[in-house]
């Protein structure tokens, strides 16, 4: 029997993997449902209501200006010293009607072109979280229950067994990520069709969405590999989950506070979420408002630092090589007991 097919079957039958997958998909369903409920399609009725709302806003401003003008004249006549009124009370007037735009009062609408790229980020985050936890439990449970030792009696080649497990895990992740991405696209396209707009979708926009989706899948595969490697290195699921909690809560939160107190420039450049976000959006620009770059017009602009997807890819590659390499070294060198 093929070891790869056996590992795929074992992965598919794990109840924890099924429950984690179901939980991740449920979150996506709730997000899509929330978007559907909170948005509306803009039509003549919505524009008419927005115009009426703008008229009401203008009338309120007119009434307020008239009342303030009366109060100003009363205060001037009484000889009260009031600094918040102008010297000439006639200067208090409402803004013209054309300044108040009707589009300010339109209900929220879902623009597929403007919103879908950003909504690929939570999809990638959920897939990465599911992949990390399932990957850690997949190999961690084997070590904890003694299944790894029994498997090595059948297939004594340690690295082959470990890498086959990882290959089956990543294959399972792809089997989840690809249909989930298609379903995510389809659900948001329906939301845009019924509760928004799908206009201005060009070939360049489609290509950008496709590349962002592929980067999201790669991010999930990196997280899955790291979770698998940590659990294999510690021979327990808790090794990966504890390490993740330590890095995110103690390391990232604590490090962020420490860097902020120390006044380090571009403190976000030391935090992992910055690189994950840069990987998905291609570039993240950090700003340091404590530094002033004067322009010819006298404007003060903050110093900036760009974090690019190339830098993120280097970090992810190093993480995979280090953790997976350490897991392979430990698998080869340590006793299987």
From TrEMBL:
Query: Which Pfam families does this chain map to?
Result: ABC2_membrane_2
Q: What GO molecular function annotation could you give as one example from this UniProt entry? A: ABC-type transporter activity
Q: Which residues form a coiled coil?
A: none
Q: Name one GO cellular component term.
A: plasma membrane
> Per UniProt, which keywords does this protein have?
Membrane, Transmembrane, Transmembrane helix
Q: Where are the transmembrane segments?
A: 16-37, 119-141, 162-185, 205-231, 238-262, 314-331
Protein name per UniProt? ABC transporter permease
Q: What is the originating organism of this protein?
A: Micromonospora craterilacus
